[in-house]
């Protein structure tokens, strides 16, 4: 997570400097790019926070438990396949 966050921070700083010197359409384009980058950075921070909460609750992957049991605590992070892991997580809780 840290390399992605650092990359985004660097790009945000770089585009911010360019935006200050830009005019007209170029400035608007850079503002839109900044908005996208800041949204991505916010998503990375939120994802990292969720992972830290899961780890703080004691999540440990165990190879012998199988995929579904290992995925169960992570059900919130995998929206495309959350129903079965969520059900298993609720049973485990």
Number of domains: 2
The SS-based structural class is mainly alpha
* Overall 3D form: elongated
- Cα end-to-end separation: 28 Å
Helix and strand pattern: HHHH
Tally of contiguous helical segments: 4
Q: Which regions are unreliable across 5 or more consecutive residues at pLDDT < 50?
A: none
Strand content: under 5%
Could you tell me the number of beta strands? 0
Sheet with the most strands, sense and barrel status: none
Rounded mean pLDDT is 88
Radius of gyration: 19 Å
Q: What is the helix content?
A: over 70%
What does this structure look like?
The two termini are 28 Å apart. This protein has helices at residues 2-21, 24-56, 67-71, 83-92. The mean pLDDT is 88. The longest helix has 33 residues, at 24-56. With 93 residues, the protein is an all-alpha fold. It folds into 2 domains: 1-59; 62-93, no CATH class.
SSE diagram, text form:
Elements: H1 2-21, H2 24-56, H3 67-71, H4 83-92
Helix pairs in contact: 1-2
List keywords for this structure.
single chain; about 90 residues; mainly alpha; 2 domains; about 0% strand
Give a short summary of the structure:
The protein is mostly helical. It has 4 helices and no strands. It has 2 domains: 59 residues; 32 residues, no CATH class.
């Amino acid at each position: 997570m840290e390399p992605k966050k650092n990359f985004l921070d660097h790009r945000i700083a770089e585009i911010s400097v360019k935006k200050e010197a830009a005019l007209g359409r170029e400035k608007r384009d850079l503002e839109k790019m900044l908005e996208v980058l800041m949204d991505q950075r916010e998503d990375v921070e939120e994802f990292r926070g969720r992972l830290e909460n899961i780890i703080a609750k004691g999540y440990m992957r165990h190879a012998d438990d199988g995929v579904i049991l290992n995925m169960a605590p992570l059900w919130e992070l995998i929206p495309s396949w959350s129903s079965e892991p969520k059900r298993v997580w609720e049973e485990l809780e």
